[in-house]
# Entry
Amino acid sequence: MKKMFLFLIIASTISCGKKVSQENVSTTPKEPKKETVVGGDSDSHGCKASAGYTWSVLKKECIRVFENSTRLNHAEDGKTYSTVSYVIFDGNKAELFLDTQKESIILERKSEGDSWVNGDWQLIPWKGYVLKKGVKILYTGE
# Structure
């Protein structure tokens, strides 16, 4: 009986010790977890860049330029690039999404077979496409 009584006293002491240590832990203030919300980066048009969407002036909707577009690579100039650019077409208009420009550029052509033009930008349909600014070839694509 004495052994049982001694056992109960020791067990309750250990149990109380755990409760006290747990209480001390729970009273320590914790910083709230900062959650990263994927797709919480809508632009002024509601396009979510983290999901690959950007606003198309030509299509008047959010699009993923790497889908249903033509890829334009930097012209051979001896440099190594890790980015590419794209062009989409709609009738006699083309919209350029260049890695060197913040806004897209709209080009127009007069008739089929002509180059698309906007100021000194010119997209020429030749062996795929050649994009020039002035006399300098900047991009090529197929």
Remarks:
- Helices lie at 2-27.
- Strands lie at 54-56, 61-63, 70-74, 85-90, 93-97, 105-108, 116-118, 121-124, 129-133, 136-141.
- The longest helix spans residues 2-27.
- The first strand starts at residue 54 and ends at 56.
